[in-house]
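Course exercise 7: structure representation. Students receive a sequence record and must write out the corresponding structure in token form. The form below is the worked example handed out in class, using HEXDC Hexosaminidase (146 residues). Read each field label carefully; the graders check that inputs and outputs are placed in the correct fields and that the protein name is recorded exactly as given.

STUDENT ID: A-19
EXERCISE PROTEIN: HEXDC Hexosaminidase
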Amino acid sequence: LSGSGVPQLVQPMIWDYAADIDVEGKVQLVEKYRRCGFSKVWFASAFKGATGVNQSLTLTGHHLRNQLEWLQVASRSPADVLEGIALTGWQRYDHFSVLCELLPVAIPSLAVCLQALKNGGYSEKVKENVEKLLGMSNLEIDTFMR
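STUDENT ANSWER:
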């Protein structure tokens, strides 16, 4: 790769939507890309649409844990390597499936994930901020919200 000139033309994106990603493996992958000559990498997480083909409601806790895992990868990677995080929200689990997790039911998950990334983690203060922003009295993380 380093001899091909590709690292000067593109920035790779590392995708993983799991709630328990292999943090050490991702750090090693970032280091491999650096050794190949890529100066920057992107991470891709998800706030909805990545947990099951028939999923109707969004599992906010799953997606929050995904963001927290990526924050761990970022903190253990060289400071100047991360260009950004693409926070994805898939409308279909795959190209042959029906629509899943429509945006309105995923708004709380999106808000939680954005606030966790913005604040570098999740805390009671972050939860209260999301509740205030969305006009909610009780944000549920580990159950399906109504």
